[in-house]
Amino acid sequence: MQILLLILPKPLKCGSLLTAILVVLTLFGCSDPTPSAPFCRSVPTALPENVSSEGAACLIRVNNSVLLIRHRLTGKLDFPAGGREGNETLQCTAHRETWEETGFNVEVGPLLSLTASDMPVFNCTADSSIAKLPAQFDAPDWSGLEVKLLEKVDPFLLSEDELRFADDLIPLRDAYVKAGKLTVAAHPL
What we know:
The protein has helices at 2-7, 14-28, 90-102, 169-186; strands at residues 55-62, 65-71, 77-78, 81-83, 107-114, 120-125, 136-138, 147-153. The chain is of the alpha+beta class. The longest helix has 18 residues, at 169-186.
């Protein structure tokens, strides 16, 4: 309240003060700081008929690790993932959620696996500069309410207790292996 009083002229009536408070809250407290997601970059992928999820995830393989987010509230690791908005495709859901949680404009490739809750996990490719980042680094400021850190981890050194959803460990490892096979197939020796 003292900050507000420093900004506003002294002789305000009750109605004027309420209006001023609403203006300040609208300008400073109610705006979404997340920049708009870049255009969805995805490779057309046919999904199995049994996929009826309203959410999607990205698996970003970085050399011998995967990029996961560490949730602020639980302190546990998870895929960059989230729920569908409007009529976007599941690939575009994975793209947007990855952008919002990591700041990376990935290219979304084929379906790799389904989580224990039947959420599709897509092969997502990030810029090669991601490999130069440390094993743990800060998430973008705009994701601060949800994401504490971004971490590159070896999925075979993780335990179920470290994941937000313990049942996702096997689908995570399966997706990692399948993504590696896609990389080798795309770049044969």
